[in-house]
Amino acid sequence: MTTAIQFLLIGIYLMIPAAIANMMPVFVRKINFLNCPVDFNKKWFDGKPIFGSHKTYRGFFFGIFAAIFAVYIQNLLYKSSLFFQEISFFNYNEQSFIIIGFLIGFGVLFGDLAKSFFKRRRNIKPGESWFPWDQIDLVIGGLIFVSLIKVPSWQMIIFLLIITPLFHIFFNHIGFWIGIRETKW
After folding, report:
1. So what's the pLDDT on residue 173?
2. Distances in Å between the alpha carbon of 85 and those of 18, 74, 160, 185?
3. Could you tell me if 149 and 4 are in contact, meaning their C-beta atoms sit under 8 angstroms apart?
4. Which pLDDT tens digit goes with each residue over 136-163?
5. Contact, 55 vs 49, CB < 8 A?
6. Which pairs from 7-13 meet CB under 8 Å and 24+ separation?
7. Pairwise CA distance, residues 150 & 80, whole Å
8. Which of 171, 168, 170, 104 is nearest to 136 (CA)?
9. Rounded to two decimals, what is the model's pTM?
10. Distance CA 69, CA 92 (A)
11. Dihedral sign computed on CA atoms, order 104, 105, 107, 112
12. Cβ neighbours of residue 174 closer than 8 Å, sequence gap 6 or more
């Protein structure tokens, strides 16, 4: 495998658990478990919601759980295939898949929460597009927390900041077409 192709695969493979964690709150929104807003419906000093009622503990729970599960699958693949060892950002023989999954999932959702805080300050409604922040919040949040274990190269960070928005837009369009998202963005 050439170095450039391996680099691309490592970046995409790293973001799979992040993307799954980011999508999970949409899939579980009708489950009545931990359906409590993270901000407890409190308002900021400006009278606007801190994050909004749609940012719930349910989303955090299932998003983090999904990221841990996705990383668990990557861990199994890593331990059974040289190909997956070559495209893995982490060495699963040295690092816990539970910690990696938790950091990715929490980071992605924390990034989304921080972005929502600023969207509310700018009077942008939940679900309304805020380009490019809606597309890169998961990269920024995920990479900040993943960096506690392993710091990505600056080339990887730039690549992910470019490629992830493209995937985000693509999958949001699919979600819109199949009826699980209200907007294409």
Report:
1. 77
2. 19, 9, 20, 34
3. no
4. 999 999 999 999 999 999 999 999 999 9
5. no
6. 7/155, 7/156, 7/159, 8/159, 9/86, 9/87, 10/87, 10/88, 10/89, 10/156, 11/156, 11/159, 11/160, 11/163, 12/163, 13/74, 13/87, 13/88, 13/89
7. 22
8. 168
9. 0.90
10. 14
11. positive
12. none
CA 62 to CA 30: how far, in whole Å? 12
Among 22, 4, 23, 8, which residue's Cα sits nearest to residue 139? 22
Tokens of 84: 């997956």
Return the structure tokens found at 32: 């009545």
Distance CA 13, CA 128 (A): 28
Give one DSSP letter per residue of 70-132, joined into a string: HHHHHHHHHHH-HHHHHT-SS-TTTS-HHHHHHHHHHHHHHHHHHHHHHHHHTTPPTTS--TT
- Rounded CA gap, 166 and 164, in Å? 5
Full 3-state SS string of 20-42: HHHHHHHHCCCCCCCCCECCCCC
> Residue 167: pLDDT above 90?
no
Q: Letter for the amino acid at 124?
A: I
Give the pLDDT confidence of 54-112 residue by residue, as tens digits: 999 999 999 999 999 999 999 999 999 999 999 999 999 999 999 999 999 999 999 99
